[in-house]
Predict the structure.
Amino acid sequence: MYRGRLAPTPTGFLHLGHARTFALAAKRAQEASGTLLYRTEDLDASRCRPEFAAAAIEDLRWLGLKWTEGPDVGGPHAPYVQSQRLPWFHAVWQQLQAAGAVYPCDKSRQDVERSLTAPHSEDDAEPIFPPALRPATDAGRGAREPGLSNWRFRVPDGEAIAFDDALQGPHSFVAGRDFGDFLIWRKDGFPSYELAVVADDHAMGITEVVRGSDLLISTARQLLIYRALGWTPPTWAHATLVLDAAGKRMAKRSAGLSIREFRAKGKTAVEVLQAPISELLS
Ligand code: GLU
């Protein structure tokens, strides 16, 4: 049985790109006669705001998207707000730790940047963590709590992580070359995005992840987490990103492109979802 999800991060008002990606997620769930759930990904306390979380629900409902499990409707996997799910993420950290897949890391971003020899991948803002900065393989063994450290996932250097995307076809990223040891847990006491999304997609029984193609490389990281945990991964469908008039990717902060702004200008939900971008922006 198909189970999909909408998983916005409430750091701003949702824009046209979100509208179209989320509408695609809803369409795929509907076409498969499946279930769609809604999950608020608000773990970054410094950037997320409850008013944006509420606005996202209102905007997507206005667009006509229908989900049957979520913060506004409840459901068997509640709570659907990640900041309320910390005990679950902690349990998943423990499983990764017990599997020997992660290690505590006290290197700062500056340490990482100082020892970089190669420029990092353009698709992804995160610099590749240099293997020379890895601790011994038994670092962190026996730890029961993540404590006040960052924890990273030790990637299998040189291994190609391949997957078949339902919309974009085959993709492959090489561990250690396209992405390096990535954050699993942050020293501020919160899980990383990669841990939280895998933990929740698994717990909520998601069978297909539909999201923007900026997260293609994250799929390779997430597949490694699934493997370390012995969990079956979902399938993936990465939507092409909507570009603004200048050909740039729409950031949540781009003024004038939020769903509510189009609504305030009198555009209909169908126009926001279907009209050519050039027409909407004119
Ligand atoms: N919450 C993430 C974002 O808004 C998306 C996570 C995902 O779909 O895997 O960028």
About this structure: The beta strands are 3-6, 35-38, 102-105, 150-153, 160-165, 169-174, 182-185, 208-212, 235-239.
